[in-house]
């Protein structure tokens, strides 16, 4: 994933919402669409930057989660709650910024995850798709370096986790077809916008989705 | 035996369950009004330890259930939820199902703010936040890189990451500097860059990502986002002062969707220290044959920062670009122009041990080196499976030296040399099925060099030496490489090819003509295999082939040498979380060098005879590197040791006389060389406040001969250490203090061990008032020469920031005590000398630095 992103997690005991802002770059040169689509290659005629907001919303009481589908506005992936399987590493106590934390190892769609959580904040949430431990997850990373989350600040807020509004909910297994169609549409659109003599109008799209949960 | 082990293992795994029958802890949680409470975290932990034995959460009806696979003795069950008071109960004695009542209350949240991590490791990428390592005092990126744990910068500007030399510096992911990465590290302003990424296992060619195991390390400088705009942005500095001094330099960057450009410009006459930012040596390729027989006699002495020994002018410009001409075509390159006009004066008194001959001389040198260097690289992504790369280099240097010598009568010499090199490389990479690839490569290099050298007695205008040397190389190489990754952890490469080298070296001195030519061809197969096993990497690399060398010289008859070549190399490395151990060993043969077989003057009083016989030399080498790199406590350590044996090398017989020294190459026994290096950095806070140590040890045992054919054994030992301490307190005054020590000694069979020691102390005092005023005074005390005479240097700098445009006004002074000369003491295996060299006189400059 790209570096230096900022994200927030707003939580209470029943629900939480994780927001991540990523800068997406459509380019004709290096062809990266960073963020959730890290390795997607779009060969288009112009380079364009756009801010994409992604979210993960979880409700324990209603037993579902909603996850945004980048680029496809109004559509979310709705799933029943199922947390990663965690195992707490014994004798792994460490104090992080004054909080007593424990290390847990887990498996998220094949990613080997190491997460530090603190029972002193008695919730079960964490960043992105990571949750299900008896305390707030403050740091987490995958062994392959695909993600690395670090808590930068923790404070009380009047905000409540906002339940996202959406037009269409899809299941996880519909994600691939929906996104591929969208990327092709988008690439065509960008190429039409930026065509000049220097480039041919042909558009290639190649999708190699690194997101193991959505393959 | 096997059966016993099996039974024992089974017994062990059953044992805990036999001892501790599973206990199911269940119940429900209610509030004061008997309403169920959902989402309560329930943890079973030890009464006396910090272990978590089991955990669960309550459901909508407030129910919970968890299994405890341990004894219930000394265990607590903890109920905790936002909005309620925590409840802790000892498990022993409880009966289940259990009803727990929680009282409403607030969980106290300790609010925290954490500064972003200064170093983040993601897989093969280590990312450093530049602001965490800079205090505003750094001028160029090299100054910041020196502070980053895991990165080491040598005095010559060579950069290593975790003990491995980097191959490139990319600017925002684009390769704009090729292998001339020092231009980036020594010129890009420190405040341009947001993050530095060190990327291990880097692949330049995307098609080889899955088929080749790469040990390549590169750095990537990510610029601040405000520099990534269409219009050029940059930084400029202009200054002038007493006495007739000026300097102007600018760095500009422009990035749009097709083109990335960086230009560095410098015009100055403020003089150079021996660590000057750009030297033509940065761009010479090792490969070509040099005709520069006579050097320019600049004695730099030991490297001393902040002491300028060369007075002169510089005009420098380098342009670096990355152009995305079409979606599939990328062109990158650089064009460097550097013109210097140097003045340097020195004097020395040399005493030759073996016949107590003493030679005195002083000289005044004017040198005008000029370099034009260009590099062009085109990458054409034909389609998904084909990539075509072209890389061309062009380098033209010319140098004019004129020297007035007093020995004690007046002599003068001039040397005029010209070098020109061109190389072209064309490579086609084809990705094939099953993680394999084929690479076809054609390489051609040609260079021609010449030097004209005249040495005359000025008064009588008598030409004593007139020498004209010329050298040329032409090289052609064609190879085909097959690369394949087998299974998960096994890579192999098979390369076969043909290489041809033609080299000529000619020397005409005083109407004598001497020459040597070498025609060398090699047909080879090169196999490489890399196996990754857990944390270990094993690599074996062998070149097997057949080589024919035809060498001809005026003094010796035509000689043809045909032989099988076998050059193996092994490397082994183990990577732990915080450390890497690296071991390697190799054997290789050295080609004939035509230089060895030609007679010519190498200085006004040294003449080299040709070798009396043809000889092939080979080198065995062993080296090991240990690298420790702990990000959390800011400690890094690199230890490097290398051992070489040079088998049957040429040694030199030196015949010393009042008029001239004559060197003759003669075959010697083995030369053994040890090189060791230790570098330790420890940062106490904020990664900057800390201690830094680096030390180098060099030891060699070898042979030479003086005034006879009798070889004698010598050994040479040298050691240098530098330790510095730096503070970054919150109050206005901070310091940096350190010491460097150099020791060298020589022992020969005929003379006892002689040694030379010098040391230097250095201190920086830094005063910062608010955000705008910075005063820095640097003091250097050098203790040099045979009796370690003290030389004191003081250099104050005052800088004032004005306004939001990053405008800085500075006043600086150099060498305010106006030292004119430094005297060093130097030892070799045949002589000792006291060398005095001139220092650029006092300077006072007023500078204006601004961003645009």
Structure in a nutshell:
The complex is a heterodimer of chains A (215) and B (852). With 215 residues, chain A is mainly β.
Write structural notes for this entry.
The complex is a heterodimer of chains A (about 220) and B (about 850). By secondary structure, chain A is mainly beta. Chain A has one domain. In chain A, about 10% of the residues lie in helices and about 40% in strands. Chain A has one helix spanning about 175-195; strands at about 5-10, 15-25, 40-45, 50-60, 65-70, 75-80, 85-90, 95, 100-110, 110-120, 135-140, 150, 155, 170, 205. Chain A has a 6-stranded mixed β-sheet, with no helix packed on it. In chain A, strands 7, 8, 9, 10, 11 and 12 form a 6-stranded antiparallel β-sheet that branches. In chain A, a hairpin with a 3-residue loop joins strand 1 (about 5-10) and strand 2. Chain B has about 850 residues and is mostly beta strands. In chain B, about 5% of the residues lie in helices and about 65% in strands. Chain B has a 26-stranded antiparallel barrel. In chain B, strands 9-10-15-16-14 form a 5-stranded mixed β-sheet, covered by helices on one side. The radius of gyration of chain B is 34 Å and the shape is globular. The chains are: A mainly beta (about 220), B mainly beta (about 850). At the A-B interface, strand 9 and strand 13 of A face strand 2, strand 3, strand 8, strand 9 and strand 21 of B.
Strand-and-helix sequence of chain A, N→C?
EEEEEEEEEEEEEEHE
Shape of chain B: globular
Low-confidence region ranges of chain A: 25-48, 195-202
**Total number of beta strands of chain B:** 49
What is the number of helical segments of chain B per DSSP (H or I, 4+ residues)?
A: 3
Strand arrangement, largest sheet of chain A? 1-2-4-5-6-14
Tell the overall outline of chain A.
globular
Radius of gyration of chain B: 34 Å
How large is the count of helical segments of chain A?
Answer: 1
What is the helix fraction of residues of chain A, given as a range? under 10%
Strand content of chain B is over 45%
Number of strands of chain A: 15
Radius of gyration of chain A: 19 Å
Oligomer: heterodimer
Termini separation of chain B: 80 Å
How would a textbook summarize the main sheet of chain B? 26 strands, antiparallel, barrel
Mean of pLDDT of chain A:
75
Class of secondary structure makeup of chain A: mainly beta
Q: Sketch the major β-sheet of chain A.
A: 6 strands, mixed
């Amino acid at each position: 994933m790209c570096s230096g992103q900022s994200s927030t997690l707003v939580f209470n005991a029943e629900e939480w919402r994780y927001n991540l802002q990523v800068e997406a770059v459509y380019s004709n040169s290096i062809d990266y669409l960073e963020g959730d689509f890290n390795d997607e290659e779009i060969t288009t005629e112009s380079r364009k930057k756009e801010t994409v907001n992604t979210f993960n919303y979880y409700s324990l009481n209603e037993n579902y989660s909603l996850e945004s589908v980048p680029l496809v506005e109004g559509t979310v992936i709705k799933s029943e709650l199922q947390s990663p399987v965690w195992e707490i590493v014994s004798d792994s106590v460490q104090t992080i910024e004054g909080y007593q934390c424990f290390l847990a190892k887990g498996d998220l769609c094949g990613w080997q995850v190491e997460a530090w959580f603190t029972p002193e904040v008695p919730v079960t949430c964490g960043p992105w798709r990571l949750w299900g431990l008896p305390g707030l997850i403050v740091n987490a990373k995958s062994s392959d370096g695909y993600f690395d989350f670090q808590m930068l600040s923790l404070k009380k807020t009047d905000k409540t986790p906002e339940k996202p509004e959406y037009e269409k909910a899809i299941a996880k297994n519909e994600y691939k077809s929906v996104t591929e169609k969208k990327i092709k549409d988008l690439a065509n659109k960008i190429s039409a916008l930026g065509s000049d003599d220097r480039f041919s109008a042909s558009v290639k799209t190649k999708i190699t989705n690194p997101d193991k949960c959505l393959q | 035996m096997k059966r016993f082990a099996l039974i024992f293992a089974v017994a062990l795994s059953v044992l805990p369950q036999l001892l501790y029958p599973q206990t199911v802890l269940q119940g429900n949680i209610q509030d004061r009004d008997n309403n169920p409470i959902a989402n309560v975290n329930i943890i079973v932990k030890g009464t006396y330890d910090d272990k978590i034995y089991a955990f669960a959460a309550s459901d909508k009806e407030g129910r919970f259930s968890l299994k405890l696979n341990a004894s219930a003795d000394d265990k607590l069950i903890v109920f905790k939820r936002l909005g309620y008071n925590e409840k802790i109960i000892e498990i022993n004695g409880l009966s289940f199902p259990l009803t727990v009542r929680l009282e409403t209350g607030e969980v106290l949240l300790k609010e925290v703010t954490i500064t972003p991590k200064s170093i983040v490791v993601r897989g093969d990428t280590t990312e450093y936040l530049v602001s965490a390592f800079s205090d505003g005092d750094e001028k160029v990126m090299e100054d910041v890189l020196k502070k980053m744990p895991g990165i080491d910068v040598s005095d010559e500007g060579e950069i290593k990451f975790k003990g491995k030399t980097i191959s490139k510096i990319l600017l925002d992911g684009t390769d704009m500097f090729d292998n001339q990465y020092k231009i980036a590290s020594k010129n890009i302003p420190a405040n341009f860059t947001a993050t530095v990424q060190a990327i291990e296992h880097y692949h330049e060619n995307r098609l080889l990502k899955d088929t080749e195991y790469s040990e390549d390390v590169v750095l990537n400088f990510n610029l601040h986002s405000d520099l990534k705009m269409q219009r050029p942005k940059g930084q400029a500095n202009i200054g002038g002062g007493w006495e007739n001094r000026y300097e102007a330099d600018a760095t500009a960057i422009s990035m749009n969707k097709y083109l990335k450009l960086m230009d560095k410009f410098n015009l100055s006459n403020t003089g150079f220290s021996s660590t000057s930012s750009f030297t033509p040596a940065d761009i010479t390729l090792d490969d070509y044959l040099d005709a520069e027989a006579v050097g320019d006699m600049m004695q730099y002495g030991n490297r001393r920062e902040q002491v300028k020994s060369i007075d002169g002018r510089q005009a420098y410009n380098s342009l670096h670009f990355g152009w995305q001409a079409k979606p599939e075509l990328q062109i990158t390159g650089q064009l460097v122009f550097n013109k210097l006009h140097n003045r340097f004066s020195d004097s020395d008194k040399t005493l030759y041990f073996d016949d107590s001959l003493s030679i005195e001389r002083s000289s005044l040198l004017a040198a005008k080196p000029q370099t034009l260097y260009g590099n062009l690289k085109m990458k054409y992504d034909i389609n998904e499976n084909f990539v075509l790369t072209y890389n061309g280099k062009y380098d033209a240097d010319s140098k004019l030296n004129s020297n007035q010598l007093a020995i004690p009568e007046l002599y003068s010499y001039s040397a005029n040399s010209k070098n020109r090199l061109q190389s072209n490389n064309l490579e086609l990479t084809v990705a094939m099925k099953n993680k394999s690839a084929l690479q076809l490569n054609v390489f051609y290099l040609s260079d021609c060099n010449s030097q004209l050298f005249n040495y005359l007695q000025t008064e009588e205008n008598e030409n004593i030496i007139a020498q004209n040397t010329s050298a040329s190389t032409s090289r052609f190489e064609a190879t085909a490489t097959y690369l394949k990754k087998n299974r998960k952890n096994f890579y192999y490469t098979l390369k076969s090819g043909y290489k041809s080298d033609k080299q000529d070296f000619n020397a005409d001195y005083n109407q004598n003509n001497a020459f040597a030519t070498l025609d060398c061809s090699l047909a080879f197969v090169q196999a490489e295999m890399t196996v990754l096993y857990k944390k270990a990497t094993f690599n074996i690399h062998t070149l097997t082939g057949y080589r024919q060398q035809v060498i001809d010289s005026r003094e010796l008859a035509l000689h043809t040498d045909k032989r099988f070549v076998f050059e193996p190399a092994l490397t082994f490395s183990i990577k732990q979380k915080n450390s890497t151990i690296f071991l390697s060993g190799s054997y290789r043969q050295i080609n004939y060098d035509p230089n060895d077989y030609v007679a010519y003057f190498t200085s006004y009083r040294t003449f080299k005879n040709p070798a009396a016989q043809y000889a092939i030399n080979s080198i065995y080498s062993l080296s090991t590197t240990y690298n420790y790199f702990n990000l959390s406590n800011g400690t890094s350590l690199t230890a490097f040791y290398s051992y070489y044996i040079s088998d049957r090398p040429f040694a030199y017989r030196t015949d010393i006389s009042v008029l001239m020294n004559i060197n003759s190459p003669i075959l010697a026994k083995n030369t053994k060389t040890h090189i060791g290096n230790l570098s330790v950095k420890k940062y106490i806070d904020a990664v900057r406040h800390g201690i830094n140590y680096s030390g180098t040890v060099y030891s060699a045992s070898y042979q030479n001969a003086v005034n006879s054919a009798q070889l004698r054994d010598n050994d040479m030992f040298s050691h240098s250490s530098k330790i510095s301490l730096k503070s970054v307190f919150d109050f206005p005054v901070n310091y940096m203090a350190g010491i460097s020590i150099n020791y060298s000694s020589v022992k020969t069979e005929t003379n006892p061990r002689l040694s030379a020691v010098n040391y230097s102390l250095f201190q920086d005092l830094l005063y910062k008032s608010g955000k705008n005023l910075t005063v820095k005074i640097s003091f250097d005390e050098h203790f040099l020469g045979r009796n370690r005479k003290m030389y004191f240097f003081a250099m104050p700098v005052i800088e004032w920031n004005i306004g939001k445009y990053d405008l800085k006004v500075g006043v600086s002074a150099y060498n305010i005590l106006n030292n004119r000369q430094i005297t060093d003491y130097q030892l070799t295996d045949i002589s000792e000398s006291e060398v005095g060299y001139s220092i650029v006189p006092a300077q006072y400059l007023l500078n204006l630095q601004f961003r645009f």
